[in-house]
Design brief:
46% of the residues lie in helices and 21% in strands. By secondary structure, it is α/β, with parallel strands linked by helices. α1 (4-14) packs across α5 (93-101). It is elongated and about 60 Å long.
Length: 305
C-alpha cells in the first residue's frame, strides 16, 4: 500500500486533483482576526475566483482542535485543494496526511514546509527578524534592556525569535528583562495587559528601553500601555508592515520601525503555483519567498521633533 507521502507526490506530479476538483479550494486558518492573515486570505480568494475556482474560507478563532476537524470535513467532501494560512501544518499533521493520502494537495501560506505539504509561500522570516533586530539594536546604540513579545507556535514568528536570540548573543550590552507569549486572537489587548505588568515590575526609567514585537499587533498593544502610563522613553519595533503600525511610525510615536511582508504577493504566488498543480504540473519548489522591506521614519520621509 502506498503511504500518504507517496500519494501526495503522485497527485502533484500527475494532476490527480483533476479539472473538476480544481474548481473548489478550501482555505483554513485559526487566525483570521489578524490583519496580515486577513490580507492573505482575501488576496488569495480574489485571485482564485478570477481563475474560476470556488473558494470556501474557514476561521476557527485560535481553536486548533476545530481546525483539525474542519480539515477532515473538507477532505471528506473531496475539495480540490487545501490552503492553510499562518500556521505550521505539523500542528495538524494527521489531517495533512489524510488530505495527501486522498490525493488532495495541501498548500501553506505564511506557514512551513513538511510531509504532505506541496508548497509553502512565505517570507524569509529569519531575515525579517534580523533586519528588524539590527535596526532596533542600532537605535539603542548597542546598550539597553528589551522586552520580547512572541508566539512560537507560528513557524515564521519562531524564526524571528531565533534571529533575536542570535543578535542577543552577539550584543552583550543588550539584555532581555521580560518576555510574553502573546495570545491569539486578542493579541492587542493581551499585549497591552502584558506591557502594563512589565512596566509595573520594571518601573524605573531605563529599566526597559525597547519592545521587540515579533509582529506588529503586539507592538501596538504595548504602545497603548506605554501611552496610558505616559512613557515616551521606550521605543518599539515590529514586523509585518501593518497599516496601523506604519501610520504610528509616521505620527512620530515610540513605534519606530516595522518590516513589511508582501502578504499579497505570497497569496498571489500560492494561487499561481496551485494553478500549475491543477494543470498537472508541480510547484517550482517546496518553499518560495516574497521579499520584505524595512519601514522607518527615514524611509517614510518623516522628520520628528
Amino acid at each position: 500500500m502506498r503511504g500518504w507521502m507517496g500519494a501526495v507526490a503522485l497527485a502533484i506530479m500527475t494532476g490527480a486533483a483533476g479539472p473538476a476538483a480544481a474548481q473548489t479550494v478550501s482555505v483554513l486558518t485559526p487566525y483570521l482576526s489578524a490583519v496580515a492573515t486577513g490580507e492573505m486570505v482575501e488576496t488569495f480568494k480574489a485571485d482564485a475566483e478570477k481563475r474560476g475556482w470556488t473558494v470556501s474560507v474557514v476561521d476557527t478563532a485560535g481553536d486548533f482542535g476545530a481546525l483539525a476537524s474542519r480539515v477532515e470535513d473538507v477532505v471528506n467532501a473531496r475539495t480540490g485543494a487545501v490552503v492553510l494560512v499562518s500556521i505550521n501544518p505539523a500542528q495538524i499533521q494527521d489531517q495533512v496526511g489524510k488530505a495527501a493520502a486522498a490525493g488532495i494537495p495541501v498548500f501553506a501560506i505564511d506557514g512551513a514546509t513538511g510531509p504532505g505539504v506541496a508548497l509553502n509561500v512565505t517570507s524569509d522570516n529569519r531575515a525579517l527578524g534580523k533586519t528588524m533586530t539590527e535596526y532596533l539594536f542600532g537605535r539603542l546604540g548597542g546598550k539597553g534592556a528589551i522586552v520580547r513579545f512572541f508566539h512560537s507556535a507560528h513557524p515564521g514568528v519562531h524564526q524571528r525569535e531565533i534571529a533575536l536570540d542570535e543578535a542577543l548573543q552577539a550584543a552583550p550590552g543588550i539584555r532581555q528583562v521580560a518576555g510574553h507569549y502573546v495570545q491569539v486572537p486578542g493579541q492587542i489587548d493581551d499585549s497591552r495587559n502584558a506591557m502594563d505588568a512589565m512596566l509595573a515590575a520594571n518601573p524605573a526609567p531605563g529599566a526597559i528601553d525597547a519592545v521587540w514585537a515579533a509582529w506588529d499587533e503586539p507592538g501596538i498593544g504595548a504602545l497603548l500601555a506605554l501611552q496610558a502610563a505616559g512613557r515616551t522613553d521606550v521605543v518599539i519595533a515590529g514586523i509585518d508592515g501593518n497599516p496601523q503600525a506604519v501610520e504610528l511610525i509616521r505620527q512620530c510615536t515610540p513605534f519606530i520601525a516595522t518590516v513589511r511582508q508582501n502578504f499579497a504577493e505570497m497569496a498571489t504566488i500560492a494561487a499561481g503555483q496551485m494553478a500549475r498543480v491543477f494543470a498537472g504540473g508541480k510547484p517550482d519548489a517546496t518553499e518560495l519567498y516574497a521579499p520584505g522591506t524595512l519601514i522607518t521614519r527615514d524611509s517614510l520621509g518623516v522628520t520628528c521633533p
